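User: Continuing from earlier, I have the next pair ready.

Assistant: Great, send them over.

User: Here they are, in order.

Assistant: Folding the first of the pair now:
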Amino acid sequence: ARQSGLSAKLLKLLKRVIDFYHTAFCEDPRARQYLNQRGITDNTLLSDYKIGFANGTLLNALPGEGDI
Protein backbone atom coordinates (compact mmCIF):
# COMPACT_ATOMS: atom_id res chain seq x y z
CA ALA A 1 0.00 0.00 0.00
CA ARG A 2 2.85 2.38 0.83
CA GLN A 3 4.44 1.76 -2.56
CA SER A 4 1.20 2.54 -4.41
CA GLY A 5 0.87 5.76 -2.39
CA LEU A 6 4.42 6.72 -3.33
CA SER A 7 3.75 5.85 -6.97
CA ALA A 8 0.64 8.02 -6.96
CA LYS A 9 2.65 10.93 -5.53
CA LEU A 10 5.39 10.49 -8.12
CA LEU A 11 2.85 10.36 -10.94
CA LYS A 12 1.22 13.53 -9.62
CA LEU A 13 4.61 15.26 -9.51
CA LEU A 14 5.46 14.02 -13.01
CA LYS A 15 2.17 15.42 -14.36
CA ARG A 16 2.94 18.79 -12.76
CA VAL A 17 6.40 18.82 -14.35
CA ILE A 18 4.99 17.90 -17.77
CA ASP A 19 2.36 20.63 -17.50
CA PHE A 20 4.99 23.13 -16.35
CA TYR A 21 7.27 22.45 -19.33
CA HIS A 22 4.36 22.46 -21.79
CA THR A 23 3.11 25.79 -20.44
CA ALA A 24 6.62 27.20 -20.71
CA PHE A 25 6.69 26.06 -24.34
CA CYS A 26 3.32 27.65 -25.11
CA GLU A 27 4.26 30.96 -23.48
CA ASP A 28 7.77 31.45 -24.86
CA PRO A 29 7.94 32.33 -28.57
CA ARG A 30 11.60 31.26 -28.68
CA ALA A 31 10.60 27.65 -28.12
CA ARG A 32 8.16 27.53 -31.03
CA GLN A 33 10.61 29.43 -33.24
CA TYR A 34 13.30 26.85 -32.45
CA LEU A 35 11.06 24.00 -33.60
CA ASN A 36 9.72 25.92 -36.61
CA GLN A 37 13.29 26.45 -37.82
CA ARG A 38 13.69 22.68 -37.73
CA GLY A 39 10.50 22.05 -39.68
CA ILE A 40 8.36 20.97 -36.73
CA THR A 41 5.18 22.98 -37.16
CA ASP A 42 2.29 20.57 -36.47
CA ASN A 43 0.33 22.21 -33.63
CA THR A 44 -1.68 19.05 -32.99
CA LEU A 45 1.50 17.06 -32.49
CA LEU A 46 2.93 19.72 -30.18
CA SER A 47 -0.25 19.72 -28.10
CA ASP A 48 -0.97 15.97 -28.07
CA TYR A 49 2.55 15.10 -26.96
CA LYS A 50 2.74 18.09 -24.59
CA ILE A 51 6.00 19.28 -26.07
CA GLY A 52 7.81 21.32 -23.46
CA PHE A 53 10.51 23.93 -23.07
CA ALA A 54 13.11 23.81 -20.30
CA ASN A 55 13.60 27.49 -19.55
CA GLY A 56 15.56 27.01 -16.35
CA THR A 57 12.77 27.88 -13.91
CA LEU A 58 11.46 24.44 -12.90
CA LEU A 59 13.17 24.40 -9.49
CA ASN A 60 11.31 27.59 -8.55
CA ALA A 61 8.00 25.92 -9.37
CA LEU A 62 8.54 22.56 -7.65
CA PRO A 63 6.73 21.98 -4.37
CA GLY A 64 8.64 21.72 -1.15
CA GLU A 65 9.36 18.28 0.25
CA GLY A 66 6.10 16.81 1.51
CA ASP A 67 3.94 19.27 -0.45
CA ILE A 68 3.17 17.01 -3.39
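And the other member of the pair:
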Amino acid sequence: MWIEKFDNPQKEVFQILNEKQEVNPDYADYLKKFDAKILLQAYQWMTLSRLQEKMQLEMNYAKDDKGQPILINGQPKVMGKVINFLGSSGQEATEVGYAINIRKGIDWLVPAYRNNAAWITAGYPIEKIIQYWLGNEMGSQIPKGINILPVNIPIGTQYSHAAGIALAEKYKKGKGVIFTTIGDGGTSEGEFFEAMNFAALHKLPIVFFIENNQWSLDTPTTKATMSPTFAQKGTAVGIPNIRVDGNDFFSVYHVTNTAIERAKNHQGPSLIEAVTYRQLSHSAFDIKKDYFTEEDFKNEQEWFKKDPIIRMKTYLEKNKLWDEAKEKELVSANTKKINEAIAWAQKNSAVPIDEIFDYTYEKLTPKLAEQKAEAKSYFTTSDNLISEMQKPTIEAKSYFGDREEAK
Protein backbone atom coordinates (compact mmCIF):
# COMPACT_ATOMS: atom_id res chain seq x y z
CA MET A 1 0.00 0.00 0.00
CA TRP A 2 1.35 3.38 -1.00
CA ILE A 3 1.70 5.90 1.84
CA GLU A 4 1.15 9.41 0.55
CA LYS A 5 1.18 11.26 3.85
CA PHE A 6 1.82 10.68 7.51
CA ASP A 7 -1.17 9.78 9.60
CA ASN A 8 -1.14 13.00 11.61
CA PRO A 9 1.49 15.61 10.73
CA GLN A 10 0.87 18.27 13.35
CA LYS A 11 0.63 21.75 11.85
CA GLU A 12 -0.36 23.42 15.11
CA VAL A 13 2.26 25.51 16.87
CA PHE A 14 2.89 25.05 20.60
CA GLN A 15 2.47 28.37 22.37
CA ILE A 16 2.38 29.55 25.98
CA LEU A 17 2.16 33.35 25.59
CA ASN A 18 0.91 34.94 22.37
CA GLU A 19 1.38 38.47 21.03
CA LYS A 20 -1.88 39.58 22.70
CA GLN A 21 -0.50 38.49 26.09
CA GLU A 22 -3.01 35.65 26.20
CA VAL A 23 -1.76 32.68 28.21
CA ASN A 24 -2.28 29.03 27.34
CA PRO A 25 -4.53 27.97 30.27
CA ASP A 26 -2.65 24.69 30.63
CA TYR A 27 0.51 26.65 31.45
CA ALA A 28 -0.84 29.42 33.67
CA ASP A 29 0.82 27.91 36.76
CA TYR A 30 4.03 27.38 34.79
CA LEU A 31 4.24 31.13 34.14
CA LYS A 32 3.41 32.05 37.72
CA LYS A 33 6.30 29.93 38.99
CA PHE A 34 8.78 31.06 36.32
CA ASP A 35 12.04 32.40 37.76
CA ALA A 36 12.04 36.20 37.35
CA LYS A 37 15.86 36.25 37.24
CA ILE A 38 15.84 34.06 34.14
CA LEU A 39 13.27 36.33 32.48
CA LEU A 40 15.21 39.51 33.18
CA GLN A 41 18.47 37.96 31.99
CA ALA A 42 16.76 36.72 28.83
CA TYR A 43 15.34 40.18 28.11
CA GLN A 44 18.77 41.73 28.61
CA TRP A 45 20.35 39.38 26.08
CA MET A 46 17.51 39.80 23.58
CA THR A 47 17.75 43.60 23.65
CA LEU A 48 21.55 43.55 23.64
CA SER A 49 21.61 41.42 20.50
CA ARG A 50 19.04 43.60 18.71
CA LEU A 51 20.89 46.82 19.52
CA GLN A 52 24.28 45.34 18.63
CA GLU A 53 23.02 44.38 15.18
CA LYS A 54 21.61 47.86 14.62
CA MET A 55 24.79 49.64 15.72
CA GLN A 56 27.04 47.22 13.86
CA LEU A 57 25.17 47.86 10.63
CA GLU A 58 25.32 51.61 11.16
CA MET A 59 29.12 51.30 11.10
CA ASN A 60 28.68 50.61 7.41
CA TYR A 61 26.92 53.87 6.63
CA ALA A 62 28.72 56.87 5.15
CA LYS A 63 28.02 59.97 7.27
CA ASP A 64 28.21 63.73 6.73
CA ASP A 65 30.05 66.27 8.89
CA LYS A 66 27.19 66.23 11.40
CA GLY A 67 27.33 62.46 11.78
CA GLN A 68 24.12 61.86 9.86
CA PRO A 69 23.85 59.05 7.26
CA ILE A 70 24.28 60.18 3.65
CA LEU A 71 21.22 59.09 1.70
CA ILE A 72 20.93 58.06 -1.94
CA ASN A 73 17.38 57.64 -3.18
CA GLY A 74 16.25 57.50 0.43
CA GLN A 75 18.71 54.75 1.40
CA PRO A 76 21.94 55.12 3.44
CA LYS A 77 25.19 55.02 1.49
CA VAL A 78 27.27 51.96 2.43
CA MET A 79 31.04 52.15 3.06
CA GLY A 80 31.74 48.42 3.16
CA LYS A 81 33.55 48.56 6.50
CA VAL A 82 31.63 45.51 7.71
CA ILE A 83 32.67 42.71 5.35
CA ASN A 84 29.27 41.09 5.72
CA PHE A 85 26.72 40.44 8.42
CA LEU A 86 23.72 38.14 8.79
CA GLY A 87 21.58 39.15 11.73
CA SER A 88 19.03 37.36 13.87
CA SER A 89 16.78 40.33 14.64
CA GLY A 90 13.26 38.99 15.11
CA GLN A 91 14.55 35.58 16.18
CA GLU A 92 15.80 36.53 19.65
CA ALA A 93 13.16 34.62 21.64
CA THR A 94 14.10 31.44 19.80
CA GLU A 95 17.85 31.82 20.20
CA VAL A 96 17.89 33.08 23.77
CA GLY A 97 15.17 30.55 24.62
CA TYR A 98 17.40 27.58 23.83
CA ALA A 99 20.88 29.04 24.43
CA ILE A 100 20.06 30.17 27.97
CA ASN A 101 19.97 26.47 28.86
CA ILE A 102 23.55 25.83 27.73
CA ARG A 103 25.85 24.98 30.64
CA LYS A 104 29.22 26.61 30.04
CA GLY A 105 32.06 24.15 29.77
CA ILE A 106 29.67 21.18 29.63
CA ASP A 107 27.24 21.58 26.74
CA TRP A 108 28.08 22.58 23.17
CA LEU A 109 26.58 25.06 20.72
CA VAL A 110 27.21 24.26 17.06
CA PRO A 111 25.78 27.28 15.22
CA ALA A 112 25.06 28.44 11.70
CA TYR A 113 25.85 32.01 10.62
CA ARG A 114 22.60 33.74 11.70
CA ASN A 115 22.74 33.14 15.44
CA ASN A 116 23.87 36.41 17.01
CA ALA A 117 21.48 36.24 19.99
CA ALA A 118 22.42 32.62 20.69
CA TRP A 119 26.14 33.42 20.55
CA ILE A 120 25.80 36.23 23.07
CA THR A 121 23.65 34.13 25.39
CA ALA A 122 26.09 31.20 25.27
CA GLY A 123 29.02 33.45 26.18
CA TYR A 124 30.59 34.50 22.86
CA PRO A 125 32.12 37.96 23.57
CA ILE A 126 30.49 40.70 21.50
CA GLU A 127 33.82 42.27 20.58
CA LYS A 128 34.94 38.96 19.07
CA ILE A 129 31.70 38.65 17.09
CA ILE A 130 32.16 42.13 15.64
CA GLN A 131 35.85 41.45 14.97
CA TYR A 132 34.84 38.43 12.90
CA TRP A 133 32.35 40.40 10.80
CA LEU A 134 35.00 43.09 10.23
CA GLY A 135 37.03 40.45 8.45
CA ASN A 136 39.46 39.17 11.08
CA GLU A 137 39.25 35.40 11.56
CA MET A 138 40.67 35.81 15.07
CA GLY A 139 37.11 36.72 15.96
CA SER A 140 36.39 33.00 15.60
CA GLN A 141 38.86 32.17 18.35
CA ILE A 142 36.40 31.32 21.12
CA PRO A 143 37.66 31.85 24.71
CA LYS A 144 38.54 28.71 26.64
CA GLY A 145 35.72 27.27 28.70
CA ILE A 146 33.05 28.31 26.21
CA ASN A 147 32.02 25.38 24.02
CA ILE A 148 30.92 27.15 20.85
CA LEU A 149 32.13 26.21 17.40
CA PRO A 150 33.07 29.06 15.02
CA VAL A 151 30.53 30.58 12.66
CA ASN A 152 29.57 27.94 10.10
CA ILE A 153 29.27 29.29 6.56
CA PRO A 154 28.69 26.14 4.41
CA ILE A 155 24.96 25.64 4.87
CA GLY A 156 23.88 22.53 6.74
CA THR A 157 27.28 21.11 7.64
CA GLN A 158 26.93 22.15 11.28
CA TYR A 159 24.39 19.35 11.80
CA SER A 160 27.08 16.81 10.90
CA HIS A 161 29.63 18.50 13.16
CA ALA A 162 27.14 18.43 16.02
CA ALA A 163 26.41 14.74 15.50
CA GLY A 164 30.14 14.01 15.65
CA ILE A 165 30.58 15.92 18.90
CA ALA A 166 27.52 14.17 20.35
CA LEU A 167 28.99 10.78 19.42
CA ALA A 168 32.24 11.71 21.17
CA GLU A 169 30.30 12.87 24.22
CA LYS A 170 28.46 9.56 24.40
CA TYR A 171 31.66 7.57 23.86
CA LYS A 172 33.39 9.43 26.71
CA LYS A 173 30.32 8.99 28.91
CA GLY A 174 30.15 12.76 29.28
CA LYS A 175 27.26 14.79 30.63
CA GLY A 176 27.08 17.33 27.83
CA VAL A 177 24.12 18.03 25.56
CA ILE A 178 24.85 19.30 22.05
CA PHE A 179 22.71 22.10 20.60
CA THR A 180 22.74 22.82 16.89
CA THR A 181 20.57 24.96 14.67
CA ILE A 182 19.77 25.42 11.00
CA GLY A 183 17.56 27.68 8.92
CA ASP A 184 14.57 26.50 6.91
CA GLY A 185 16.67 26.64 3.74
CA GLY A 186 19.32 24.40 5.26
CA THR A 187 16.83 21.54 5.55
CA SER A 188 17.29 20.99 1.81
CA GLU A 189 20.92 20.01 2.37
CA GLY A 190 21.94 16.37 2.58
CA GLU A 191 23.73 16.82 5.92
CA PHE A 192 20.40 17.70 7.51
CA PHE A 193 19.00 14.19 7.03
CA GLU A 194 22.33 12.38 7.31
CA ALA A 195 23.12 13.89 10.70
CA MET A 196 19.63 13.31 12.09
CA ASN A 197 19.56 9.72 10.90
CA PHE A 198 22.98 9.08 12.45
CA ALA A 199 21.98 10.75 15.73
CA ALA A 200 18.74 8.79 15.95
CA LEU A 201 20.46 5.49 15.15
CA HIS A 202 23.01 5.98 17.94
CA LYS A 203 20.66 7.75 20.40
CA LEU A 204 22.97 10.74 20.67
CA PRO A 205 22.50 13.53 23.25
CA ILE A 206 21.64 16.26 20.78
CA VAL A 207 18.89 18.84 20.30
CA PHE A 208 18.32 19.84 16.67
CA PHE A 209 16.71 23.23 16.01
CA ILE A 210 15.19 24.56 12.80
CA GLU A 211 14.82 28.34 12.91
CA ASN A 212 12.04 28.69 10.39
CA ASN A 213 12.24 32.43 9.70
CA GLN A 214 10.10 32.17 6.54
CA TRP A 215 12.93 33.01 4.12
CA SER A 216 15.99 31.28 2.71
CA LEU A 217 17.81 34.24 1.20
CA ASP A 218 15.15 35.28 -1.37
CA THR A 219 13.16 32.03 -1.37
CA PRO A 220 10.03 31.84 0.81
CA THR A 221 9.31 28.63 2.71
CA THR A 222 6.29 28.03 0.48
CA LYS A 223 8.72 27.38 -2.37
CA ALA A 224 11.28 25.45 -0.33
CA THR A 225 9.46 22.25 0.63
CA MET A 226 6.31 20.27 -0.05
CA SER A 227 6.13 19.10 3.56
CA PRO A 228 3.35 20.77 5.56
CA THR A 229 5.93 21.39 8.31
CA PHE A 230 9.68 21.20 8.77
CA ALA A 231 9.32 19.46 12.12
CA GLN A 232 7.74 16.38 10.59
CA LYS A 233 10.95 15.69 8.66
CA GLY A 234 12.20 14.28 11.95
CA THR A 235 9.54 11.57 11.81
CA ALA A 236 11.22 10.07 8.74
CA VAL A 237 14.31 9.24 10.81
CA GLY A 238 12.52 8.40 14.04
CA ILE A 239 13.17 11.62 15.96
CA PRO A 240 10.43 13.12 18.19
CA ASN A 241 9.60 16.57 16.89
CA ILE A 242 7.51 19.62 17.69
CA ARG A 243 6.60 23.02 16.23
CA VAL A 244 6.84 25.93 18.62
CA ASP A 245 6.10 29.66 18.50
CA GLY A 246 9.62 30.98 17.99
CA ASN A 247 8.61 34.48 19.11
CA ASP A 248 7.49 33.20 22.51
CA PHE A 249 10.44 32.83 24.88
CA PHE A 250 8.44 30.69 27.30
CA SER A 251 7.47 28.15 24.65
CA VAL A 252 11.01 27.73 23.34
CA TYR A 253 12.45 27.51 26.84
CA HIS A 254 9.90 24.87 27.86
CA VAL A 255 10.27 22.53 24.88
CA THR A 256 14.06 22.90 24.99
CA ASN A 257 14.09 21.70 28.58
CA THR A 258 11.97 18.70 27.61
CA ALA A 259 14.45 17.86 24.84
CA ILE A 260 17.38 18.29 27.22
CA GLU A 261 15.87 15.79 29.66
CA ARG A 262 15.44 13.27 26.83
CA ALA A 263 19.11 13.70 25.92
CA LYS A 264 20.30 13.39 29.51
CA ASN A 265 18.24 10.23 30.01
CA HIS A 266 19.84 8.54 26.98
CA GLN A 267 16.61 8.73 24.97
CA GLY A 268 18.27 10.25 21.93
CA PRO A 269 17.82 13.42 19.89
CA SER A 270 14.88 15.78 19.49
CA LEU A 271 13.91 18.12 16.65
CA ILE A 272 12.36 21.52 17.37
CA GLU A 273 10.98 23.76 14.62
CA ALA A 274 10.76 27.34 15.89
CA VAL A 275 8.35 29.35 13.73
CA THR A 276 9.68 32.90 13.69
CA TYR A 277 10.55 35.70 11.24
CA ARG A 278 13.69 37.23 9.75
CA GLN A 279 13.10 40.95 10.29
CA LEU A 280 16.25 41.98 8.44
CA SER A 281 17.28 41.34 4.88
CA HIS A 282 19.34 38.23 4.19
CA SER A 283 22.64 40.03 4.70
CA ALA A 284 24.23 43.47 4.99
CA PHE A 285 24.36 43.71 1.19
CA ASP A 286 20.90 42.46 0.35
CA ILE A 287 17.70 44.43 -0.17
CA LYS A 288 14.24 42.99 0.34
CA LYS A 289 12.46 45.01 -2.29
CA ASP A 290 14.50 43.23 -4.95
CA TYR A 291 12.46 40.09 -4.33
CA PHE A 292 9.57 40.92 -1.97
CA THR A 293 6.10 41.17 -3.47
CA GLU A 294 3.49 43.60 -2.20
CA GLU A 295 1.89 40.70 -0.36
CA ASP A 296 5.23 39.84 1.27
CA PHE A 297 5.51 43.35 2.69
CA LYS A 298 1.95 43.19 4.04
CA ASN A 299 2.70 39.85 5.65
CA GLU A 300 5.86 41.30 7.16
CA GLN A 301 3.86 43.98 8.95
CA GLU A 302 1.84 41.25 10.64
CA TRP A 303 5.04 39.57 11.77
CA PHE A 304 6.35 42.84 13.19
CA LYS A 305 3.31 42.91 15.48
CA LYS A 306 4.57 39.59 16.88
CA ASP A 307 8.01 41.03 17.70
CA PRO A 308 9.52 38.84 20.46
CA ILE A 309 11.12 41.74 22.32
CA ILE A 310 7.87 43.70 22.44
CA ARG A 311 6.09 40.58 23.70
CA MET A 312 8.65 39.99 26.44
CA LYS A 313 8.79 43.64 27.52
CA THR A 314 5.00 43.87 27.72
CA TYR A 315 4.86 40.74 29.86
CA LEU A 316 7.53 42.06 32.23
CA GLU A 317 5.77 45.42 32.59
CA LYS A 318 2.41 43.76 33.11
CA ASN A 319 3.88 41.69 35.95
CA LYS A 320 5.63 44.66 37.60
CA LEU A 321 9.08 43.37 36.72
CA TRP A 322 9.97 46.24 34.39
CA ASP A 323 9.37 49.94 33.83
CA GLU A 324 10.60 52.78 31.63
CA ALA A 325 13.30 53.79 34.12
CA LYS A 326 14.81 50.30 33.97
CA GLU A 327 14.47 50.31 30.19
CA LYS A 328 16.36 53.59 29.91
CA GLU A 329 19.10 52.25 32.19
CA LEU A 330 19.37 49.03 30.16
CA VAL A 331 19.58 50.86 26.82
CA SER A 332 22.33 53.09 28.22
CA ALA A 333 24.30 50.11 29.56
CA ASN A 334 23.87 48.13 26.34
CA THR A 335 24.92 51.11 24.20
CA LYS A 336 28.06 51.62 26.29
CA LYS A 337 28.93 47.92 26.11
CA ILE A 338 28.47 47.79 22.34
CA ASN A 339 30.42 51.01 21.71
CA GLU A 340 33.33 49.59 23.70
CA ALA A 341 33.11 46.33 21.76
CA ILE A 342 33.08 48.16 18.43
CA ALA A 343 36.09 50.28 19.43
CA TRP A 344 38.04 47.16 20.43
CA ALA A 345 37.06 45.29 17.26
CA GLN A 346 38.04 48.20 15.02
CA LYS A 347 41.39 48.47 16.77
CA ASN A 348 41.95 44.74 16.27
CA SER A 349 40.41 44.26 12.84
CA ALA A 350 43.51 44.45 10.64
CA VAL A 351 45.42 41.26 9.86
CA PRO A 352 48.63 40.72 7.86
CA ILE A 353 47.98 39.95 4.20
CA ASP A 354 50.02 36.76 4.66
CA GLU A 355 47.28 35.19 6.77
CA ILE A 356 44.74 35.44 3.97
CA PHE A 357 46.91 33.07 1.93
CA ASP A 358 48.96 31.06 4.45
CA TYR A 359 46.05 29.21 6.04
CA THR A 360 44.31 28.03 2.87
CA TYR A 361 46.44 24.88 2.54
CA GLU A 362 49.21 23.30 4.62
CA LYS A 363 51.67 24.58 2.01
CA LEU A 364 51.20 27.43 -0.42
CA THR A 365 50.44 26.33 -3.97
CA PRO A 366 52.41 28.08 -6.73
CA LYS A 367 49.31 30.01 -7.77
CA LEU A 368 48.56 31.18 -4.23
CA ALA A 369 52.21 32.16 -3.75
CA GLU A 370 51.98 34.27 -6.89
CA GLN A 371 48.76 35.92 -5.70
CA LYS A 372 50.25 36.55 -2.26
CA ALA A 373 53.31 38.27 -3.72
CA GLU A 374 51.12 40.46 -5.93
CA ALA A 375 48.87 41.41 -3.00
CA LYS A 376 51.83 42.25 -0.77
CA SER A 377 53.25 44.52 -3.45
CA TYR A 378 50.16 46.70 -3.02
CA PHE A 379 49.03 46.23 0.57
CA THR A 380 50.54 45.62 3.98
CA THR A 381 47.44 44.76 6.00
CA SER A 382 43.91 43.74 5.18
CA ASP A 383 42.75 47.10 6.56
CA ASN A 384 44.53 48.83 3.68
CA LEU A 385 42.92 46.40 1.28
CA ILE A 386 39.48 47.17 2.67
CA SER A 387 40.14 50.91 2.43
CA GLU A 388 40.95 50.54 -1.25
CA MET A 389 37.86 48.44 -1.80
CA GLN A 390 35.79 51.27 -0.34
CA LYS A 391 36.75 53.57 -3.23
CA PRO A 392 34.34 54.49 -4.66
CA THR A 393 31.75 54.00 -1.95
CA ILE A 394 28.97 51.73 -3.11
CA GLU A 395 25.31 52.64 -2.85
CA ALA A 396 23.68 51.25 0.25
CA LYS A 397 20.78 48.90 0.44
CA SER A 398 18.52 48.98 3.45
CA TYR A 399 19.06 45.95 5.64
CA PHE A 400 16.12 46.76 7.86
CA GLY A 401 13.54 47.29 5.12
CA ASP A 402 10.49 49.53 5.36
CA ARG A 403 8.88 48.97 8.70
CA GLU A 404 5.74 50.42 10.22
CA GLU A 405 5.51 50.67 13.98
CA ALA A 406 3.97 47.53 15.46
CA LYS A 407 0.83 48.32 17.40
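Worth noting for the second one:
The two ends are 51 Å apart (CA to CA). Residues 353-389 form one domain.
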